[in-house]
Every structure is written in C-alpha cells, then in structure tokens.
C-alpha cells in the first residue's frame, strides 16, 4: 500500500506564503529538543537508536537518546497504568527539557510510537496531539542493520513537529515552516510501499494531524476538506483498528478540525460547531471519564468553548447551560491538587459563564455559584502573586454582588459589592491604571447611590 499516492492528490496544495518569515540565520537558532526513550521490547533491539540516527538528519531537531533503565510496563496504554505513563514521562521531560518525548513499545510484530509533551493536557497552544495517538510500524524495520525508509522518517518527523507546543511567535513560525517542508516531502517521496494496509488508519490519522497542525487557522474550506478526507480515510478502515482508544483519537481530531474551522471561517460557522460537538462526543464514547479521564476532560473543556460560541451565535440558553456542564466535567478531572493552574483557568471560565446564566435567568442562587467559582480562582491567583489579575477578579465579584443587590434590593449584597470594588480600586490606583480606576469609581458611585 502506497499511501503517498493518496497524499499526492490531496495533501500537497499551493498555499499563500505567510507574511511571518524567519531569516535562515534565525531559523537555524531554533532547534526543538526531542528525547527518544529506549523502547519497551521483549527482544534484544536497537529500535530507539535506529530512530535517533534517522531523525538526526532532520532540520530543526536536537535529538537525545534516553536509555536510563526503568520498568516500562505502563506503556501498554491500559487505563490502570495510564497515570504512571504520564507521571514518568513528565519526570523525563522535566529532567531533559524535552519539547517532545517519544515512547516506543512492541506489540507483537509491530512497534508503536507515542508522543508526549510538557503539561500535555493543560497547555493552551496549537497542538492537537494526544499521548494516546499511536503510530505503528513493522518491528523488523527497526533493525539497525537496515536503512530506515526515508518516507517513514519524514512521517515520524512530522508527528514530532505537529506535537510541539510552540512557546513563542518565533517557535510557531519555525513549526509552521517545518511542517510545510514535511508535507512537501511526504507528497514527493515514494519509498513507503512496504507498509501493508493494516497500518493505513494509523498513518492517515497522523497525516491528518500534521495537516491540521499546519492549516488549523486557514480561512478557506479547501484545507478543511483535505484534513477531513485524511481522517475519514482512517475511519473508513476502522475494521483494522483493534483497540477502541485509537478510534477515539481519530474522532477527537475530527472534532478539533471542525472546532478550528468554526473559529477561522465565517461562512456557515454553526455547521462547523455542530460537526465539532458531534465528533467530540463520539470521541468521549471511546475515551471515557473513568478510563482515560484526561482526554475526556480535555474534550469537555473544548466542548464548553464550542457551546459558549454557539450560544453567542444562536442565543440558545441551553447551549450556555451545556457550556457550564462541560466545564464542570473538566473541573472534576483537572483538580486543584493535580492541575492548579489549569483548574484556576477553568474556575475563571465557570465564573464568567455562570454569571451570564444568572443574568439571563434572573437567579441570585446561580449568581452565588459564579461568585464561588471566582473565589476558587483566587486560591491560585493571589493578590501577592498577580495583583492585577486578582483585582480584576475582585471587580467581577463586585459586579455580581451589585447585580444581586439591585435586583433583590439586598443591602448586604450591595455592601459586599462596595468592599470588592474598593479592593480592586486600591490595586488599580497603586498600579497607576487611570482607566481601570475610573471604571471602578463609577461602580462605587452607583452602588453607593443604591445604598443611600
């Protein structure tokens, strides 16, 4: 099966050149650090070293081989050992400073590769890869005495680059540039004919992810159709997928594709919202709350944003309720104890979305839930750590108390509002922020008028 024949007719498209270009000298200074762990294998092998050797010819990568001994039984991807995989991977990433960690594990006569990044489930960046995304190859290709096929090296290269969470504008430009070169290389290489059809869904899933990572912000539906075709080709061969989590990953990426398109194409956005929601929910059937909770929670978080955007488009109250529900689902998984920063981000969104719901339903009880969420956010965003952000939250809480006080003629709520407004004013005045201070003074005046 030559999957590259398929790519040649779909993958390689002329793209408008980006106005953001790095000079050759600047690009050479940006190298993404990739750590390849010794493979979990039940036979004597040199698979990781083979991959390291092949990838060292790829531009923009700094390759390191990590062969410290440790028990790799968690690489079976079973739900009961998934937390051990994440924890050990994060430990290696912290130790090595890796942008991407590549795991390798034998399954019968195949080698499975997975890709882990720093804080993979809480990094808000243009990365679409899950650690559960799996790329399979025949194990005998990794024999050090053989030359690893160039097209498969390029495919792994693309999987690595697409997984990277770019940390700066320059890194994003470099990532986009490398992905463009990788797509062109995959479209012209003709050396992967030895892969049989059983590998097709996994290859197509990663080709789709590579293309999505390159074109996620495209403003035309041409790129959407190319990526959709790749993922749907993977789904059309789902009978070859033995483990349902791999099917869940494909639906997850289809959801991400529709999601990204809804944010960047103004034509018929509601149809893309619906497509994203449908595919995300399908993904959650395979990546369940009690089996793979982090993927389930990450999808819930994305669903919340979709329902919120859909509410803004259609003004359907149920969509806003669904947004809050999905944030609550994410909150249960990304907890204060384990994910403090991400938990605080979720609490901030909960505060805002619930406050909108309270205003629309005229419910003081719901408004109190919004206040509780904002106060939770301040467990992480403290006055000492980030005074401006803390004061902004104080202002939001003050506004909710003001709305309760005005609606219910509640003196206690109005007095609470004044207290929160004065806390915010103190910070804004000390930071010499005249516009913010003026806004708060206006809020203080109208609150005082109601009290008098």
Describe the structure.
The chain is an alpha/beta fold and 452 residues long. Helices cover 61% and strands 7% of the residues. The chain has helices at residues 3-8, 24-28, 47-55, 82-96, 150-163, 169-188, 200-215, 221-236, 244-264, 269-286, 293-314, 317-333, 340-361, 364-377, 387-408, 411-430, 434-451; strands spanning 32-37, 61-66, 100-107, 110-116, 135-138. The model is unreliable at 12-19 (pLDDT under 50).
Topology:
Blueprint: H1 3-8, H2 24-28, E1 32-37, H3 47-55, E2 61-66, H4 82-96, E3 100-107, E4 110-116, E5 135-138, H5 150-163, H6 169-188, H7 200-215, H8 221-236, H9 244-264, H10 269-286, H11 293-314, H12 317-333, H13 340-361, H14 364-377, H15 387-408, H16 411-430, H17 434-451
Parallel strand pairs: 1-2, 1-3
Antiparallel strand pairs: 3-4, 4-5
Helix pairs in contact: 5-6, 5-7, 6-7, 7-8, 7-9, 8-9, 9-10, 10-11, 11-12, 12-13, 13-14, 14-15, 15-16, 15-17, 16-17
């Amino acid at each position: 099966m030559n999957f590259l024949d398929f790519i040649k007719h779909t993958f390689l498209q002329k793209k408008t050149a980006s106005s953001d270009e790095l000079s050759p000298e600047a690009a050479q200074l940006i190298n993404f650090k990739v750590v390849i762990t010794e493979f979990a294998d039940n036979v004597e092998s040199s698979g990781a070293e083979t991959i390291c050797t092949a990838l060292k010819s790829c531009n923009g990568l700094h390759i390191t081989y990590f062969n410290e001994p440790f028990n790799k039984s968690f690489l079976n991807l079973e739900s009961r050992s998934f937390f051990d995989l994440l924890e050990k991977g994060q430990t290696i990433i912290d130790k090595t400073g890796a942008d991407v960690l590549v795991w390798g594990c034998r399954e019968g006569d195949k080698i499975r590769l997975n890709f882990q990044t720093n804080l993979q489930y809480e990094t808000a960046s243009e990365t679409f890869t899950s650690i559960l995304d799996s790329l399979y190859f025949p194990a005998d290709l990794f024999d050090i005495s053989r030359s690893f096929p160039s097209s498969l090296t390029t495919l792994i290269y693309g999987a690595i680059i697409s997984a990277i969470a770019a940390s700066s504008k320059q890194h994003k430009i470099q990532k986009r540039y490398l992905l463009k070169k990788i797509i062109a290389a995959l479209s012209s290489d003709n050396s992967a004919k030895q892969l049989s059809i059983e590998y097709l869904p996994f290859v197509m899933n990663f080709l789709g992810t590579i293309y999505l990572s390159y074109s996620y912000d495209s403003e035309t539906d041409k790129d959407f159709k190319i990526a959709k075709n790749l993922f749907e080709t993977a789904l059309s061969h789902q009978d070859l997928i033995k483990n349902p989590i791999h099917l869940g990953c494909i639906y997850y990426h289809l959801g991400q594709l529709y999601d990204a398109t809804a944010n960047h194409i103004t034509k018929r956005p509601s149809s893309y919202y619906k497509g994203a929601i449908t595919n995300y929910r399908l993904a959650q059937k395979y990546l369940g709350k009690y089996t793979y909770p982090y993927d389930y929670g990450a999808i819930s978080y994305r669903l919340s944003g979709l329902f919120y955007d859909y509410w803004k488009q259609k003004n359907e109250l149920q969509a806003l309720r669904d947004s809050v529900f999905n944030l609550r689902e994410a909150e249960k998984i990304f907890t204060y104890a384990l994910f403090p920063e991400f938990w605080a981000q979720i609490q901030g969104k909960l505060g805002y979305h619930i406050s909108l719901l309270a205003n629309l339903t005229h419910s003081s009880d719901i408004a109190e839930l919004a206040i509780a969420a904002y106060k939770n956010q301040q467990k992480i965003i403290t006055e000492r750590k980030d005074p401006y952000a803390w004061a902004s939250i104080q202002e939001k809480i003050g506004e909710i108390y003001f709305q309760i006080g005005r609606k219910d003629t509640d003196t206690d709520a109005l007095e609470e509002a004044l207290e929160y407004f004065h806390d915010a004013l103190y910070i804004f005045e000390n930071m010499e922020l005249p516009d913010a201070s003026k806004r708060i003074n206006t809020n203080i005046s109208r609150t005082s008028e109601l009290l008098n």
